Every structure is written in structure tokens, then in C-alpha cells.
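Q: How would the C-alpha cells look for this protein?
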Amino acid sequence: MFQSNPLKFASAADDFLTETKVIEKLNVKKVLLKVGGGCNLLNLLATHKDVQLDCFDADIVGLDHLKSKLSALKRNDLDRLNYLSAEQVGLNQCGRYESLLRIFRRFVYEIILEHDSFLERFWEAEEIEKQKILNELFLSLAWQRAFSMFFAKESLEAIVGGQWSDDSCGFVKKNIETLLLREDRSSNWFLKHLFKGEYDEDAYPPYLDFKSWDSVQSFEIFHSELWDLEIESYQLLSLGNYVDFLSKEDAKKLEVALKTRLPKGSAIILRTLKNEDPFVDSLKSDFSIDRAWGEELLKEDKSFLYSHQAIAIKES
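A: Here is the predicted structure in C-alpha cell form.
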């Protein structure tokens, strides 16, 4: 009788640009990632063959989803991964987060924009016409209202779970508008995923272009919370907004593990929508917190769900 979808994220809400920049700057050779839809791991596997990349998740559903993606990639079944296909059972459309995006998209095309006209004209239009379309879109009262309906704290927590910012809808609205105004909008696979429900020839995550999955070095997939893993050998932990889904007690377990077991020089990437992030602040005694670098990289990337990012580097 009731809908029951245990998969939170079918696709990554964050861009792997930050991981790439940190790997390159710190000469990282071993990384552990929170699965989170699997896209960041897959993109890094496709682009960083000389780096050991492992992943973890306490949710077996997320791990099984990643394995399904790997199986589709080895078969080169890109349709199954929503390349030129908006099927909602596709592996990049079947999560609760993607259901939220789909409802948002339906509202936009029912109330604000003409679906076929927008998709056929906007992405290929001259810059002047694009700006005119965007100016009218942004001034629409229905556009402004859409974010408070679908990306409010209460909506995100009810549909996706976790703990979100009191002004999450304002952050997401600003992020999407900023990306739509950028010159690289037509190659932004996050925007195409949002407005089309699929990836196309101009915008897709790099892992869809990689053809040698059978040759990828072995990597570990851990069914576990992070504090129960042997993290001592990793130079980089990519945690996304992992902490936003933890209880206070579990966040404390994570804090202790990071402070006592990570080696000096190791880095952590943390994303969130929250204005205040007490977890990041709790690491200050043992880590150098580089918010400026994190925010700079977040502004460069193509994603829109998060508005704050910190990079923490172990000092002792």
C-alpha cells in the first residue's frame, strides 16, 4: 500500500572535482570514500588509475546499488545508467533524492516552463536568448516558491533523511541559478540530470565515457560505519555529508576515530548545507580546517545541493 524505497541517493549530489584537486595537491595515493550514489568513486576510478580507491557504507542498499552500476558499466549498458534515457527505474534515477528532483522538474514544466520548448531551445540558444529566458524564469513567483516547496529542510528530511539547513531551499535556489548563469551550463551533467532526468551527449559524468572497467585495479567495498574500519593507511577520506545523517552519539564516535587514528598529513573532505557545522569545529584541536580552499573548490564545481565545504588536514 505504501511506497518504500530504501535507496537515498541513486546518483552523487557532489562533484568529484574537489577530490581530484586534493589528490593532486597532496599527492594522495590511497582514498576512502563514502559511497553516496557511487558516482564519485566511479569517476575517480576512471580518471585516477594510479590511486587506490576504496569505499564504505553501513547501508547495504547503497553498496548493492554501486555493484549494479559497475555491472552495467562492464556491459556498456549506458541506457541503464540514464544516458539518453530518463527512465525512473534507471540506476541514476531510482533513489529518493531523484524522486525529489523529478517532482521538482514536473512542477517546473507544469507551472512555469513549456517542457519541449525549453529543452529544445534553451541549451543550444545564443547567449542573449539564454539570458532572457533565465531572467524571466528567475522572476517567476512560481520558480521562487518551488524551492520552498521541494528543498525546504522539512522536505529534504522527510524524503531523503538526515539533518539539513534551516534555509536549505535558499541555498539550493542560489546554487542552481548560479550554475544556469555560467558559461559551462550546457556541459553540466548535474543541471541536465535536474532538468532532463537524463544525461546527454554534451553533459555526462566522466565514468560513462570509460570503456576499460575490466582492467580497473581491485578496490575494497566495506559494509561498515567509518569508525569500525582500519582507516590508518588512508591519506584522504571523502565523506560527503556523511555527518548530516549521523546521530550525536555516532558523530562523536567518528570524531574520536578521526582524531586518534588518522596519520599526520591525512585530509578529510566534508560537505554540508548547514550554516553552522559543529562537527567541523570539533576537529580543530587536531586538524587544520581549510574552509577557504573548500569553498573555492565548491564554487568551481558543477553541483548544487551543498553550499559549504571544508577540507581538514591532520596536524599531529
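DSSP finds 13 helices and seven strands in the chain.

The mean pLDDT is 96.

Upvote if useful.
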